[in-house]
Amino acid sequence: MSEMIETEVSASVANITELPWPTYNKYFEVTSTDKKLDSMITEFVVLGNHTFSIVEEEKFKYLMNMGFPKRKCLTRKTLMGRISNISQELKIELKEQLMSTELKYVCATADCWSVYKNVHTQTSETRNTGSRVENSDDDEDGEDDNDDEIDMIEIDEILANGLEQNPEYSLPPHHRCASHTLNLVATRDSEKSLSDVIYKKQMRSSFAKMQGLWNKQSRTSVVADTIHDALNVYINVPNTTRWNSTYNAVKCLSDQLQKSEAKIQRICDESGIPRFDKNDLAFMIDYCKIMEPLSRALDILQGDKYMAMGYLIPTISWLKMKLTELSLAGKCKNLAKACLDGINLRFTSMTKEIPIILSSVSHPKFKFKGMSLFERDEGMEFFKAEVEQLQSITGIDNDNVQPASEDYFLFDGDVEVEQHNTEIDRYLTTPFSGDLLILNTTPIIKNIFLKYNTALPSSASVERLFSVAGDICTKKRGKISDQNFENLLETCVV
């Protein structure tokens, strides 16, 4: 199972569907030398997050004239036109793909929140203007026009009466963010380990010393320079917006203590912080051993390049196995038990949902890995029923296809089945080569994969979008228009 965590799938869903998903560099591939230079400049400004007016600066023009003396430099107006054209091309291509008859499933997300039993949905106009909606009462006319931009819908009665009486309202299944849920295990559920008085005393003592050193580096430039001069690096400091930051900070300090204990102790003396003793170091080492699997699982689940719903069950199963082993011994065994209880509490019902089970079973990388014997039998029943249903709808019959060659073998953890010439048998007996194109040989299972292996719900992807938007809308771009902001954001995130 650890091999599953350390490797990544080498092909994406886009490769399976064979749809021409756009890539950013595609829009800069031109044949003309002059147009190619303009494309390179546009890419330089967009990806480098430079100001648009840089193309009209004298030093930039001088640099261009040195390399291309007969070439007129790109103007700001032309640059903005190119960015706008790229944005429009992206929208047109996306619309064409959504209108394609070959596209059967689309994964979508909604930005909504609840207050006083009301669901607030943000319209496109609200999203375009960003935080200006909150400041609308500062307009010259003094009127608050928030009611025109935010729709408030009472959902209690709708859900109570059922969808049969209100077919026009339909909500998709609710899936919590797996990354955020796992972060709650590492932060809130782990606090239950403080019921052990000895562990609680040691944890608070060690973290008080570490927090003192982190605060000194963050708040005092003299201490920060002292740390850098002694260790040639700054130590990592926890950040509440980065879920693995506490683990990374403890791991960094633990490694430095093992590597350069005398230097760390001297820094503590000069900073007026109590020294770290052997018990502190032993606690930090055990703490990192327990939190490392959580950190690695969190990194996997908050990935967005090849991440799919099918990763959830194998990742959580691997994590539970590691925490079970770590809960047997060590200074922080109570921490491992508390985290394990939190995972069972928060993820058990989620991993028993049929769509999530089918997403894992239909993923050729995992199939039935991470499932108990009972869960495998149950999953096989769900899998067979889904295959039969799609087979009756599509009319595809693959029972007469030749069986796999003799050198094919079962994966570890796969279900042993009788060898017949069926699509399920070929799927289970075909080893995963690291390329999802293998699903092209099993068209029905490929459709199941596309149906259930949506992107794993994660707020990490949304936070990345916010980070890109924050990098675009900087102080130097304080006067950027809403349209230019949207165009630049769309070209950056492709």
Automatic annotation (TrEMBL):
Protein name according to UniProt: HAT C-terminal dimerisation domain-containing protein
Biased composition (Polar residues): 124-133
UniProt region (Disordered), positions on chain: 124-149
Lineage of source species: Eukaryota, Metazoa, Ecdysozoa, Arthropoda, Hexapoda
Coiled coil: none
Organism (species): Acyrthosiphon pisum
Acidic residues composition-biased segments: 136-149
Domain of life: Eukaryota
